[in-house]
Amino acid sequence: MSRDLDVAVVGAGIAGLTAAHELQRAGLAVRVFEAAPQVGGRMTSVRHDDWTIDTGAEQISPSGYRATWELISRLGLTEAEVPRIGRPLAVWRNGRAHAGVADTRGTLTGAGLSRRAHLDLLRFQTWALRNRDHFDDDRPERSLLAAETVADLGRRYHPDLHDYLLQPVAGSFFGWDTERSAAAVMVSLLLSVGSAGTWRTYRDGMDTLARCLASDLDVVTGQQVHEVVADGDGARLQTGSDVVTARSVLLCVPAPVAAQLHANPPAEEAEFLAACTFTPALKVSCLLDEPLSVPGGDRPYVLLTPAVEEQALSAIILDHEKHPGRAPMGKGLLTLMANPSTIPDLLTASDEEVVDRLTRAVHRYLPDFDVANRANFVHRHRYGLPEATPVAVHRRGRFAARAVGPVDYAGDWVVLRPASEGAVRAGALAASRTLSRLHPAIKPALSKRLRVVPNSLESSR
Predict the structure, then answer these.
(1) Per residue in 296-326, pLDDT tens?
(2) Strand partners, 379
(3) Which residues form the Amine oxidase domain (predicted)?
């Protein structure tokens, strides 16, 4: 049977674009279908006057982001385009900011932890480093703590370790409820990303990688896919009144969306899709007339606001500290991240109500905020990041061992790594699996290429 395409990719987020990039390099006819008017998925940026507003929050590490640096190098991005952030993370406690969260300085200072909790932080770090070979960020189901939640892990130590480290990091970076999400995934991430003092960002916005990838691909934006059906040796997509056929289809969308689109998934796929729940994300961008800084804390670019201290916010990102190019000279830019517990009530609220609720909480941390705040934008992500529950971790083994069929998947949820690196790795994996089915002779060359950790940027670190 003749097909319209070799591969149809549903979703122009970083996972779908990575997969399409690899498959096109292998000589296949690939088209990407994206429902939104722009590429990037959860890694989009909005330009307003001279502000660059990230709708999410992204930073990349020199360690633990092997596949991302592969793409950065291949696409020709320079070191100046992926600069070091150079500002610390801080946590709020007892009326002030304490710098050093996720950094080597925190090992010395405790980063807001009490003396007893500081000792337990050292115990935890020693244990994690000693057992790092038992944590696999590509196969979390094989890791230690796979059946435990982050809160379970916290209960082994002084309560402050949970309240002023594990919960603020999990709640702000992933939107997690620590009673639900897997400790194995979080510990793997903490081990892989290294010290926050080494983290980097994209100078021109978090959509940089997506825009670079899409520039050489056949991408159709504003095109909603309604259904995908495995059909013999291929699959078909329903897009509006049209039907597109392909030898393979890759669903590169959040797991709940993939479950809705795929009409006839095998059992081992359906059960994992059902287990891959997502946490929603809600953020407000604030354009400022001046670049405010949090008093104390060595001018952090992220201020974590623990749930035991703050109910409305999980963090404040000072984007102009993250990179000065995010705002015009002499101006500022903030991202207010909603506390996971408040998001369900606010997801369907008006923009005015969301802005009012989150901005009212800022004065405690930035006393001059009202004077400087000039405009606000609300960003809603119904499917923010994979929740990575122990149930999902348990079911992933059978999913990972599935046979390659005409419909496959990519996304950070495939490896249960809630970060862009997880999406890039999943995209590369999906491309390799697809090629093994369509062109088995190509697979060894691609697999070898995906194992390379090249990079002129890496050598400069």
Answers:
(1) 778 999 999 999 999 999 999 999 999 999 9
(2) 283
(3) 14-433
In terms of phi and psi (left: phi > 0; alpha: psi -120 to 50; beta: otherwise), the region of 306 is beta
CB under 8 A, 24+ apart: contacts of 27-32:
28/435, 28/438, 28/439, 29/5, 30/5, 30/6, 30/217, 30/218, 31/5, 31/7, 31/218, 31/219, 31/220, 31/244, 32/214, 32/217, 32/218, 32/219, 32/220
Check whether 163 has a pLDDT greater than 60: yes
- The domains found in the chain, sorted by start residue, are 5-43+206-275+390-459 (3.50.50.60), 89-200+278-386 (3.90.660.50)
Model pLDDT for residues 180-204, shown as the tens digit of each residue: 999 999 999 999 998 998 999 999 9
Which residue shows structure tokens 């001046």?
Answer: 290
Which range of 104-108, 262-266, 344-348, 453-457 scores highest in mean pLDDT? It is 262-266
What is the Cα–Cα distance from 167 to 142, expressed in whole angstroms? 24
Block residue for tokens 């360690």: 63
DSSP code of residue 28:
-
- Cα 113 off chain centre by: 27
Q: How far apart are CA 145 and CA 159, in angstroms?
A: 19
pLDDT by residue (tens digit) across 41-65? 999 999 999 999 999 888 999 989 9
Residue with tokens 């987020």: 13
**pTM: predicted TM-score of the whole model, two decimal places:** 0.94
Helix (H, G, I), strand (E, B) or coil at 68: helix
Interaxial angle between packed helices 115-130 and 183-193, expressed in degrees from 0 to 180 and rounded to the nearest 10: 80
Closest among 10, 5, 3, 2 to 408, alpha carbons compared: 10
Q: Which amino acid is residue 397, in one-letter code?
A: G
Q: Which residue has the higher pLDDT, 30 or 461?
A: 30
Spatial CB neighbours of 159, under 8 Å, sequence gap ≥ 6: 117
Cα distance between residue 283 and residue 290, in whole Å: 20
Q: Name which of 125, 187, 120, 197 is nearest 156 in CA terms.
A: 120
Percent of the chain whose pLDDT exceeds 90 = 89
- Which one has a higher pLDDT value, 232 or 227? 227
DSSP element (H, E) containing 287 = strand 278-288
Contacts of 76 (CB under 8 A, 6+ apart): none
**Nearest-angstrom CA–CA distance, 395 and 120:** 32
